[in-house]
Specification:
about 250 residues; alpha/beta; Rossmann fold; Arc Repressor Mutant, subunit A; 2 domains; five-stranded parallel β-sheet; four-stranded antiparallel β-sheet; 8 helices; 11 strands
Length: about 250
């Protein structure tokens, strides 16, 4: 796996690059935004770790140009700007995750791995499955051509499931990959969001037809159109039964 690390501090970037290399990654390092923009025009990466406060061209501009070219490369924003406004700005421009300095090195590596796993789901910006169409660049969702307005969290849950059609995704896996919820591992927040997501997707059709299955004790998965008449056990907690041992 190949990463691009964009960080203006040479000392910090050298430390991060060494740690990432020890984690099994090939790492290219640049120290200013202009250089990063030029490199991203010609090189392909599995993920980008991007600082915001950069010389020549700031990180948000680098991100805006990258997404403007239609590139879906996963981007982890790494910055000393920890305010909510900065997070929202980065995420709205297409950042996949956000980690404020100071940070835990283990968390950085774990998040980079999670982004790469997500990025390998599909290289095309538009995902289609089960009558759903999700545009990862516009972050819009349609069901049978009807626009469905989702919250950011509902969108990320659906995007993760659509990268893995017919694959059962556990609640634990969703919590690990939805960056906002690493601190809520033991809560029932996922069930609430999935329930709301189902209702909004169903409302797009004249007659409700569930598209997200609950696999009791295992997790969730998208249901193929041929299975939409099955009982989905919508109100059951997917973790209410112990998950089978590997």
């Amino acid at each position: 796996m190949r990463l691009l690390l964009v960080e203006d501090s040479e000392k910090l970037s050298a430390w991060l690059a060494k740690a990432l290399q020890q984690g099994g990654y090939a790492v290219d390092v640049v120290h200013d935004g202009g250089q990063a923009d030029r490199v991203l025009l010609t090189e392909t990466y599995d993920a980008v770790v991007l600082d915001l406060e950069l010389p020549t061209l700031d990180g948000l501009s680098v991100l805006r140009r990258l997404r403007g070219r239609g590139a879906a490369t996963p981007v982890l924003v790494l910055t000393a700007r920890g305010g909510l406004d900065d997070r929202v700005a980065g995420l709205n421009l297409g950042a996949d995750d956000y980690l404020a300095k100071p940070f835990d090195l283990g968390e950085l590596i774990a998040r980079a791995k999670a982004l790469i796993r997500r990025g390998k789901g599909s290289a095309h910006p538009v995902l289609s499955a089960c009558g759903l169409e999700l545009n990862t660049l516009e972050q819009t969702v349609r069901r049978d051509s009807v626009f469905v307005e989702l919250s950011p969290t509902e969108y990320r849950i659906l995007e993760y499931l659509m990268h893995r059609p017919r694959v059962i995704v556990s609640k634990r896996e969703l919590l690990e990959h939805l960056y906002d919820y690493n601190w809520e591992r033991h809560s029932n927040v996922i069930e609430a969001h999935v329930s709301n997501l189902r209702k909004k997707l169903d409302a797009a059709l004249p007659e409700p037809a569930a598209v997200i299955e609950t696999m009791r004790g295992r997790g969730y998965r998208l249901a193929p159109e041929m299975d939409l008449g099955f009982s989905m056990d919508d109100d059951l907690d997917p973790d209410s039964d112990p998950e089978p041992e590997a």
